[in-house]
Amino acid sequence: MPGVSNRTLLRPLALASLVANIALVVTGAAVRLTQSGLGCPTWPRCTEDSYVTTPEMGVYGVIEFGNRVLGIVLGLIAVATFIAALLHKPRRRSLIVLALVAGLGIPGQGVIGGITVLTDLNPWVVGLHFLLSMALIAVTYALWKRTAEGDRPRRSLVPAPLPALARLTTVVSAAVIVLGVIVTGSGPHAGDAGAKRNGLDPATISQAHADAVFLLIGLSVGLWFALRAVKAPRPAVRAAGVLILVELSQGLIGFIQYFTNLPVLLVAVHMLGSCLVWLATLSALWSLRERPHDPSPPPIPLEYPTTNTTPAPVA
């Protein structure tokens, strides 16, 4: 591919970082839903005397410690990704910056996780932990996509109103996630039997969350129809269609879990679904533009020995 070196592992490492950030959300859900939030009751140690779990802590300690270990693995992947970005030929500033931001988010997650434990699972801190994961998913997704792009100016593939509609859809998708975090903070799955809730009325917050979901689906459907109307490139139309399908699936799971008193398995699937909705939103937004590679330099002409082609004078 022009402009992209195949001598580095940057693209697969960027994808690994994206997948690992999603996995961290899933393992975090397992910690909360199994009441293992205080399986390691202190931080940065797991106990006052040990950095690792002990047999006396049982399965709860194993689950919480496993989530911490995944955070360390994620940090190692981030370091490898940053090094790969530095070694990428040609060196690209945008890739280095994105890899650096993704890497700096990992210690940030560790600090917030520590505050979460030290504040006995304060629901607002727990929510911030999740939102930082969503931000890192966006950064690592951008890094992964940029590895396949060039550095020429961004070019829209659709008429001007449609990128604006896609950006509005992205903002509403982010709002849905934030409201979902607040709903979670008011619900029963606190991560520990003694953890406090945020004190908000679950029914009221859930209704606001549902209203935002309806708005998001409406905007996504409008985007899909608009893309078809202007005969947008097929990948853009497909990305908008996938977004609608993921949203409808996530909404169905949300309604079922609400009316079945939030069973643990469905809540876990719903948290994974939040990551997939966010990814589908980013994919739809990204599909409306492109950044071509720098044009290849013109070939160097071969030099041939010159010969005298002047006709000989006629005698």
Task: Give structural attributes.
315 residues; mainly alpha; 2 domains; 2 strands; 1% strand; disordered N terminus
Topology:
Blueprint: H1 10-33, H2 58-87, H3 93-118, H4 123-146, E1 155-156, H5 161-186, H6 202-229, H7 234-259, H8 264-286, E2 289-290
Antiparallel strand pairs: 1-2
Helix pairs in contact: 1-2, 1-4, 1-8, 2-3, 3-4, 4-5, 4-8, 5-6, 5-8, 6-7, 7-8
Uncertain stretches:
1-6
Radius of gyration computed on alpha carbons: 25 Å
The SS-based structural class is mainly alpha
Q: What's the count of strands? A: 2
Characterise the protein shown here.
The chain has 315 residues and is mostly helical. The protein has two domains: 7-151, no CATH class; 153-292, no CATH class. It is 66% helix and 1% strand. The protein has eight helices and two strands, in the order ααααβααααβ. It has helices spanning 10-33, 58-87, 93-118, 123-146, 161-186, 202-229, 234-259, 264-286, and strands spanning 155-156, 289-290. It has a two-stranded antiparallel ribbon with strand order 1-2. It is flat. Mean pLDDT is 85; it is low at 1-6.
